[in-house]
Amino acid sequence: AQKVTQAQTEISVVEKEDVTLDCVYETRDTTYYLFWYKQPPSGELVFLIRRNSFDEQNEISGRYSWNFQKSTSSFNFTITASQVVDSAVYFCALSETTDSWGKLQFGAGTQVVVTP
Amino acid sequence: ETGVTQTPRHLVMGMTNKKSLKCEQHLGHNAMYWYKQSAKKPLELMFVYSLEERVENNSVPSRFSPECPNSSHLFLHLHTLQPEDSALYLCASSQDYGGSTDTQYFGPGTRLTVL
Fold it and tell me: Do residues A22 and A72 touch, judged by C-beta distance below 8 A?
């Protein structure tokens, strides 16, 4: 069963608009880790952020911000004032501590298209 | 040098060919991974190596054969592949094995086409 759901397949915005990507996860672990990766057209997966299950403090890093809510099992990601270079596929991933092999479980990804 | 490099970036092969994908990490990490990314499917973990020992083989067909001669290098040997094996193959590394807590850093991938 899919443990990470990214319901949005594609989001298209015009430059300078904000865009929020949804991620819903499922786990029975009390300790787990959530990640966001970006995959530009070049193919490389670029690490953006890691958050552990005990830290619900939301974070802002430049134009990126994350909203982690355990009560709704969501870990959403927002790009503020989007730019063309933000065009990429964004993946949310879950790592459960019952699986000691560092297995990342990825969502299907959300394609973000930013047009000038 | 960038963190994780992969060669070749693109590969076209026939079903009877034998080829190898190479991954090298310059991060001093102890664990390395192979993933397969097919169109319309989530990333699939194929193999995990820690300190040059294979610790995960995720039900991958034997036509894919990994090799990890040292903690910096990882190979994926390919033989008698099928057209459905066409995909982007991504290599990753993390500081330690057994670390579901460790962040994995990815290479740029090898785009494989099997004719």
Answer: no
pLDDT, tens digit, 9 for 90 and up, residues B31-89: 999 999 998 788 989 999 988 888 877 789 999 999 999 999 999 999 999 999 999 99
Whether residues B101 and A44 touch (CB distance < 8 A) is answered with no
Do A102 and B99 contact (CB within 8 A), yes or no?
yes
Give the residue among B58, B44, B50 at the shortest CA–CA distance from B89.
B44
Q: A84 — phi, psi (to 5°)? A: -55, -35
CA distances from residue B5 to A17, B67, B91, B108 in whole angstroms, order as listed: 34, 16, 8, 7
Written as six digits, the tokens of B56 are 């995960």
Please report residues of B whose CB lies closer than 8 A to that of A33: 100-101
Does position B90 have pLDDT exceeding 90, yes or no? yes
Q: How far is CA B29 from the centre of its chain?
A: 15
Q: Which amino acid is at B115?
A: L
User: Is the CB of residue B12 less than 8 Å from the CB of residue B35?
Assistant: no
Chain A touched by B55 (CB under 8 Å) = yes
